[in-house]
Write a structure and sequence with these properties.
- This protein has 247 residues and is mostly helical.
- It has helices at 5-23, 29-39, 42-64, 70-91, 96-120, 131-148, 152-161, 166-190, 196-219, 225-246.
- It has one domain.
- It is built from 10 helices and no strands.
- Helix 1 (5-23) crosses helix 9, helix 3 (42-64) runs antiparallel to helix 8 and helix 6 runs antiparallel to helix 7.
- The relative contact order is 0.21.
Length: 247
């Protein structure tokens, strides 16, 4: 990877954010997607990010594995798998130049979903819990995770609707993404997104992911979540806008 010092700094910060997002600060994860796509070709960035996500998923599952609510996972998985397959075929038909604005739009859309998530925290949330709701969000999560590794906010919406306590919320999400991200690996390899060179790059960044995962557990106790997420979302808007501007 022929990166300059600034680009390496962005990669390190993104790896830290991936770790923190998986273990306690889910709002921060939305920022690493546009940042990595700014320093690497858009398609290549998704292949770089995926192994780091899996590495962080292992930390999250290891810490919260006892709190997963499997009936919710069973409801979502078939639809999410269908979404991954759909996203795979879409990915095979578009170029780097076409993918960059798509990722920017996806990130902005996910930020809108995050705002809607905040609205759901009102006294009278009205999110439906029928199978159609799981089908819609599962399919959307599968497509967006295959295209841009950006399905986190969609999963958050679903888990909030299920009224899960904090530990069950994180534990269920951790297992969900660990399973789906492993499913994505052969598709990404077939598309040439995960290669020997990209895995070497991942090995350099894995320690940063581990540090971020440990930091996420401890920082959650000290940093106000709303303030932190608000700052990160503003930065994500700027990063996504930059991608759209460069398209």
């Amino acid at each position: 990877m022929d990166l300059n010092t600034t680009q390496w700094a962005v990669a390190v910060v993104s790896a830290l954010m991936i770790g923190m997002a998986k273990t306690g600060l889910p709002g921060v994860g939305i920022l690493c997607v546009p940042l990595m796509a700014m320093i690497l070709p858009s398609k290549a960035s998704t292949g770089i990010v995926l192994p780091m996500l899996i590495f962080a998923d292992v930390f999250a599952v290891g810490y919260y594995h006892r709190h997963a609510v499997w009936p919710h996972l069973v409801r979502l998985m078939p639809w999410a798998l269908a979404g991954i397959i759909l996203g795979y075929f879409i990915m095979g038909q578009i170029s780097d130049a076409q993918l960059k604005p798509i990722i920017g739009i996806i990130v902005l859309a996910m930020l809108g979903v995050n705002c809607f998530r905040d609205y759901l925290n009102s006294d009278n949330p009205t999110i439906p819990t029928q199978w159609q709701f799981a089908a819609m969000l599962g399919l959307a999560a599968g497509v967006t995770t295959m295209l841009a590794n950006a399905a986190g906010p969609i999963m958050i919406i679903y888990l909030l609707a299920m009224r899960l306590p904090k530990n069950e919320f994180i534990g269920t999400g951790a297992w969900y993404f660990l399973i789906l991200n492993w499913v994505k690996v052969p598709f990404s390899m077939h598309l040439g997104l995960i290669t020997a060179a990209s895995l070497k790059f991942n090995l350099i960044l894995f320690p940063c992911v581990a540090i971020g995962a440990a930091a996420g557990i401890f920082l959650l106790r000290w940093i106000p979540q709303k303030i932190f997420n608000f700052a990160v979302q503003i930065l994500a808007v700027l990063a996504a806008a930059q991608m759209l501007w460069q398209a």
